[in-house]
Write a structure and sequence with these properties.
single chain, 373 residues, alpha+beta, Rossmann fold, 2 domains, 8-stranded mixed sheet, 5-stranded antiparallel sheet, 10 helices, 23% strand, globular, binds S-adenosylmethionine
Length: 373
């Protein structure tokens, strides 16, 4: 059992070894140049020998007008990992732009400092470096994302980081998004993000997975695919662009949920311009969220709907497939989802002893138009 768990952990931690492509960093970072002038930037999950975050900031040190670049590299014991190379200890480096006349430093030019510990972003010595930073920019380990962001918030840091899309509805994160303490970067959430991989992992994906979902081959190179996106608390122009609304509200087109005092909107662009109450919209709405135009009220499930409580539970319902067979699951499974009355003829439905039928919409964020917007 324990061995199984370790195996599973080793497997899931492989996703921690997805390396960000320079093109994705450039595409996002170009929208924030004003924030970086005079800033101390810290990349705290980045081996400078392989991290494109380090490369980006080192190459653009002068153009961005940075004050300092600090990078720490995590050293774990799994020698097959990309980040290990032949380093014997975790390292960090600090670059203030003066070492190299060309402004394009090589790691050897700057010099490597050794950390006492393993370079864990939570370690005391890394936290000391964090304290010096104005902006933290990286793609942290997926498996530690909650803790990672919590630490940034605790130390009141500005940040621009890559995380999994599921993180939006983490109960630790969503309240911060709701209160405008953290938002989506400029790159669209729905854009496919590809990552460089350690060779062994690339090989394993090729042998065990189908191309298209877990990986893609680009010019003969295997790239890892993951549901990733940028999260930041740095302001950018896109989040002040007004979403132009053209649809008028009608009760037929926008039914109310069975268990929330809110209407269902299937597509962000179809948000009615004349509805003043709460609306359930797809998660991808966050890509277009302008906090002057809309207020976020909550989200379905995971304890994220305190300001819009669900009004009905489904413990006495059961789940049925479209062919009429029971799945064996109780209706409690759909508690706190955004549920609509009726059967669309496609998805499984839930029914009670009185023949009342409901179905769950996809995951929703609850929003309300701001007065005057
Ligand atoms: C998703 S990879 C991204 C690497 C790099 N930031 C990039 O974007 O290319 C996450 C990195 O975090 C490192 N890492 C894992 N656990 C860590 C920890 N506790 N503290 C700091 N870094 C860690 C991994 O070794 C890996 O290099």
């Amino acid at each position: 059992m324990a061995a199984n768990r370790n195996l599973h952990q080793a497997k899931s931690n492989k996703k921690d070894e997805f390396y960000t492509q320079l093109v994705d960093i450039e595409n996002e970072l170009r929208h924030y140049t004003e924030h970086f002038r005079g800033a101390v930037v810290y990349c705290n999950c980045d081996d400078p020998r392989v991290s494109n975050f380090f490369h980006y900031f080192a190459y653009n040190f002068r153009v961005l007008g940075l004050k300092k670049l600090i990078t720490t590299c995590y050293k774990n014991q799994q020698m097959d990992m990309f980040s290990q190379h032949d380093a014997e200890k975790a390292i960090w480096l600090e670059y203030d732009g003066t070492e190299n006349e060309t402004g394009v430093p090589a790691v050897e030019d700057i010099g490597i400092h050794y950390l006492q510990g393993d370079g864990d972003f939570r370690s005391a010595e890394c936290i000391e470096l964090l304290k010096q930073a104005d902006i933290v920019v990286t793609n942290p380990p997926f498996s530690l994302f909650r803790e990672y962001v919590a630490q940034l918030i605790e130390y009141d840091k500005q940040f621009l980081v890559i995380g999994n899309k599921n993180a939006i509805t983490y109960k630790e994160l969503f309240p911060i998004i709701k209160d405008n303490g953290l938002w989506v970067g400029v790159t669209s959430m729905s854009r496919d993000m590809l990552f460089d991989l350690p060779e062994e992992y690339a090989q394993e994906l090729r042998e065990t997975k189908k191309e298209g979902s877990a990986y893609k081959v680009v010019n003969g190179v295997v790239k890892g695919r993951s549901q990733s996106m940028w999260f930041t608390n740095l302001d950018h122009k896109k989040r002040h662009e007004e979403l132009i609304l053209y649809k008028r509200y009608s009760p037929d087109e926008y039914p109310k949920y069975d268990n929330y005092d809110a209407i269902n909107v299937d597509k962000t662009k179809e948000i009615p311009f004349d509805y003043d109450g709460v609306m359930g919209v797809p998660i991808s709405f966050l890509d277009r969220h302008n906090p002057d135009q809309f207020e976020i009220v909550g989200a379905t499930q995971r304890g994220c709907h305190d300001d819009l409580p669900d009004t009905r539970k489904y413990d006495d319902y059961w789940e049925v497939r479209q062919d009429g067979t029971k799945t064996g699951s109780s209706g409690s499974k759909t508690n706190e989802n955004a549920n609509l009355v009726g059967n669309d003829g496609r998805k499984n439905y839930f029914i009670n002893s009185e023949g009342r039928i409901i179905q769950s919409a996809y995951q929703r964020i609850f929003i309300r138009r701001r007065r005057g917007a």
